[in-house]
Amino acid sequence: MGKNTNKKSDGDWLLSNNFQADFTKKGEKTKLGGKGEGGIYRSKIDYVIKRVETGNSAYTPQNRKVENFRTYDEVLASRLFGELGGAVPYMCVVNDTDGNAYVAAERLRGAKDLTADDFKKLPLSIRENILSEQVIHAWLCNRDIVNADGENYVVDADRVVAAVDFGQCFFSGFRSVSGKTDGSKDDKIFVEGDPLLLIPGESDKHGQLYLPDSKQYTLNNKDAIANFFSTGADLDLQRHAYLQGVLRVLSMPDATLTAIVNKSLHSEEDKQKIIRGLQARRDKLVRHAQAKYGQFALEEEQSSLELRRVMHKAGIFSAMPGSVSGDAVVGWKSQYQNALLPKIIIKDDILYIDISVKIDKLDAVNNILAKMGVTTSKDAGGIIKVEVPIPAFKRIVETAVMADALQILLGSHEYKSTSAEAKYKSPYAGGAYKGDCSDGFRPVVSYVPSDASAGKLKLEFDERVISGDNFAKLLQEKYGLTKDVDYTLTSGEIIIVDPKSFLLLTQTEIGARKTAIVSENDKGQIMAGRLDPAKKGGASGFATAGGNADKPMNPRASAADEGGDEFGHAISTPEKLIPIGSTLHSREPNIFLAGPGLTSDIKRPIGYKEFKDGTIKYHSFHQFREASRADSAASFDRSSVMYYVKFYQQQIQQELEKLGFNDIIVICSKKAGTLGHVYIKPSITGGGTVVKKIRQADELVKVLTSRGIRYEKIEKISKQHNGAGNTEGVKREVFKVDAKLNPLEFLNILMGAAAVVPAPAPTPTPVWSLMS
User: Tell me, what's the pLDDT at 150?
Assistant: First the structure.
């Protein structure tokens, strides 16, 4: 049913049958993403390309492709992991001219290994998410999750934690213990193995595997994995994480699993083995969860998670960390994981809600339940007894979760609650956090028939507030629902045919909690303000407009609002804003570019008080660089500006390719001291035993000179692999473009045109998925 726009399990599997020709080599591969030959290549965006194989010396270039399945294993595992909410770089397959398959993974901006120390310092909500992912790794039979140095998990510049290496999943996971060296597969461990043995802390035999030859084999980095994840998890967190991991695996219907596997490049026989193996491993995980935590453990955890969303919308939070203050409070409240997580206990067909650890919230929780129509009784110890049957309670909570999500969706698009009818009124006081859209229209959500455990879902709405056609448009845009397939529409009423899938969609799609905007003028200057250290807790430097979104399900409009709130300038025609990047796990665009003429100087009251007086204006990039050199602490509001210069890096790269320079690499610097400075250099290409440049700079010099572009030609030494398997230093000519030119100015000169708003580059394939 529909699709989750945050998930990326689809997309091209095979991007190239001659990647050396279709991609421009930029540099040698770093360790991030596992071992194996490869490099960093550019094709619109940068990819780390690597080969996954045993390295059998008997293989020739022509017969190495017997191990292509290892590449297919890694790409398929990454897509299944992403479909279940794990953060992953976008991965696909590229071939060389001999038919050998390589993994191409989008290079993550500013990524570094996530160490055990980094892990334990992460917020609880992120650690809970990563811990639950260990169940997904076990389901995929991933033998190599992480090591003592944190390799295979990375954290990027936006503090998004991602798994980047799936080279030992499925058939590939135990190739070194199968005893086979001819490239054939041993699927016994994957299909028949016990996934519990791969989960840290869930078995005293963690990582131990036995084959029919009675020999014992162990997980890669067994002890390091156990130590790594034990640093940030107490027993209660481990329980929540384990159950949530199983629920995540269970959230994938067989139809979705089959569809994703069938799109892979595996043989038909291997596809069927993978599907059967994953189904069997899923069933084993469920049995383990019930045996360890009780028959109703998964049902209890699911109800707890749904009730936490209700608590979030009602503004009932867990204890706020003492270090959170000021603007950070707004962000803290915007994250639903920080809401109270009630403990659900099912015993003798009665459901209890345990609030004893947060007993000061007892009355607030009980009052919300009463407003939702749940009859309860409570005791002094913090236990709420639900007096309605469990199925009825679950339907009440589920419909509340869906109504909350739809209220945020409609409120984000300016559909406000104007009806006086009581049935459209929210049970909450409103204003719990920025972006709760408490003034948004709230449809009535109910199951039909009301006493059915599996029926259909009815959405009632007021056509004076929103027309049926506009409601249908939002359901298509946000949830991928198709009229007359996923739902029917009549006057003031929508009937959803698959309530369970819709419930999952509304829990996963939480929108953009933060947005930002970069405004530029026709000279390529961008609007920014100089921070006042006295008002900003000692921080200096510059910032563009951005912050927590009032309209989380409409990030474009939220970004336009931020420009007005923080800079006192109006952003006209938000629909013309160009998406240039994302800091979200989902990679839904939340950073936008307002081109020349879209930002009006009307001097609205400024809501952000931490700028120095008179500093909000258009700045050239050389001014930012000069400020950074004068004050090393003067860092920039990095994310939005870094995506801005990356956007123009892509635009300039494409323009040079139109001029015939297919082996040229454009670098638009993101470092503080050289921010926005454009560099042009030849690509790296290997040949024989000595690496040589294949493109001379003569033609580029002619182009730059003919357009009056001043530049400085310098030489740099680059480390490159030679044909003998070693690295050597090779000189490369680098063109350093006039420092006074802003990126847009340089692009327009190259194009030989007056200042224009560039057409947006093709949107890169989303590289992250978001956990519900």
Answer: 67
| Banded model confidence at residue 41, pLDDT cuts 50, 70, 90 | confident
Using alpha carbons, list the distances in angstroms from residue 318 to 360, 381, 536, 537.
10, 18, 27, 26
Residue whose token pair is 């009463």? 370
Characterise 340 by phi-psi region: left (phi > 0), alpha (psi -120 to 50), beta (else): beta
Is the pLDDT at 554 greater than 80, yes or no?
yes
Supply 323's token pair.
């270090």
pLDDT band at 343 (very low <50, low <70, confident <90, very high): very high
Q: Which DSSP state fits 169?
A: S
Contacts 24+ apart (CB under 8 A), 727-734: 727/28, 728/690, 728/691, 730/684, 730/691, 730/692, 730/693, 732/681, 732/682, 732/684, 732/693, 733/681, 733/682, 733/693, 733/697, 734/679, 734/680, 734/681
Of the candidates 4, 28, 147, 252, the one whose C-alpha atom is nearest the C-alpha of residue 729 is 28
The tokens for 563 are 């420009």
**Phi, psi for 513 (deg, rounded to 5):** -80, -20
The pair of three-digit structure tokens given for residue 51, joined into one six-digit string: 């080969």
Q: Which residue has the higher pLDDT, 327 or 593?
A: 593
Cα–Cα distance between 575 and 93 in angstroms, integer?
35
- The yes-or-no verdict on residue 300 having pLDDT over 90 is yes
Helical H segments across 465-573, by residue range: 468-479, 499-508, 555-567
Rounded to a whole number, what is the largest CA-CA distance in the chain? Answer: 84
* Cβ neighbours of residue 223 closer than 8 Å, sequence gap 6 or more: none
CA dihedral sign of residues 161, 164, 168, 169:
positive
669 and 679 Cβ atoms separated by less than 8 Å:
yes
Local confidence band at 769 (pLDDT 50, 70, 90 cut-offs): very low
Beta strand spans in 520-638 (E):
526-530, 542-543, 545-548, 570-571, 578-581, 591-594, 599-600, 617-619
Tokens of 688: 């024989």
Which H helix or E strand runs over 515?
Answer: strand 514-519
Q: β-strands 456-460, 444-448: how paired? A: antiparallel
- The whole-number pLDDT of residue 688 equals 31
- What's the predicted TM-score (pTM) here? 0.85
**In what helix (H) or strand (E) does residue 435 lie, and over which residues does it extend?**
none
CA distances from 43 to 20, 25, 38, 661, 700 (A): 11, 9, 15, 13, 20
Task: Identify the three-state secondary structure at position 46.
Answer: strand
**Between residues 754 and 233, the one the model is more confident about:** 233
Q: What number of other Cβ atoms are within 10 A of residue 747's Cβ?
A: 23
pLDDT given for residue 452 in this prediction: 53
**Residue 249 in this model has a pLDDT that exceeds 90:** yes
- Give me the mean pLDDT over the 458-487 stretch: 94
Answer for the pair 527, 567: CB distance below 8 angstroms, yes or no. Answer: yes
The pLDDT > 90 percentage for the chain reads 37
Give the Cβ contact number of residue 94 at 10 Å. Answer: 23
Measured in degrees and rounded to the nearest 5, phi and psi for residue 627 equal: -65, -40
Cα separation values, 314 from 301, 310, 329, 548, 771, Å: 20, 6, 16, 18, 21
Alpha helix segments (H runs only) across 319-458 = 327-334, 362-371, 390-412
Q: How distant, in Å, are the alpha carbons of 213, 244, 294, 589, 638 from that of 82?
A: 36, 15, 29, 18, 26
CA–CA gap between residue 54 and residue 51 (Å, rounded):
10
Question: What is the overall mean pLDDT for the chain?
Answer: 81
Residue 181's CB: how many other CB atoms inside 10 A? 11
Check if the beta carbon of residue 400 is closer than 8 Å to that of residue 296. no
pLDDT at 763: 41
